[in-house]
Design goal:
This protein is mainly α and about 140 residues long. The protein is built from three helices and two strands, in the order ααββα. The protein has a domain at about 55-135. β1 and β2 form a beta hairpin.
């Protein structure tokens, strides 16, 4: 067996071992006193009393959607920030066919990619301003 995968197997073994040990320790050391209040279902900060089909305030949904909108945009900005300046000759690696591979955005495309990201950030800023103006972030 090749030793190329040894760090991966070690990482997986440590991760699984840590997870199992945390579960075992919480079962052994955790509190066991069960009360009526602890056995009640938790419903978004409200006591679950009454009909389950009651009206729910739309502000909960607006805050959740706004969080998802501005959280998911980071998924696009972090890889761009890493790749934007990482195509340096020091990172060049030749593959088995002898072709030199570089990571990141090639220097000739950096300006174009930068302005594409700026358009994305401008659209995101417009969405933030619109949500702010509509009062999505105000908790009444």
């Amino acid at each position: 067996m090749s030793t190329d995968f040894t760090p991966i197997f070690l990482f997986l073994a440590i991760a699984v071992g840590t997870g199992l040990s945390m579960l075992a320790l919480s079962a052994l050391l955790g509190p066991r006193k069960e009360t009526r209040v602890k056995q009640m279902p938790y419903e978004s900060g409200m006591d679950p009393i009454g009909d389950a089909r009651q009206r729910f305030d739309v502000r909960f949904y607006l805050v959740a959607i706004a969080f998802l909108l501005f959280d998911v945009e980071l998924l696009y900005l972090y890889p761009w920030a890493v790749a934007q300046w990482s195509a340096e000759p020091a990172l060049a690696v030749a593959n088995s066919a002898g072709v030199v591979l570089t990571a990141g955005v090639p220097p000739i495309f950096r300006a174009m990619v930068f302005w594409e990201i700026m358009v994305f950030v401008a659209i995101l800023t417009a969405a933030f301003a619109y949500a702010w103006k509509k009062g999505v972030f105000e908790w009444r």
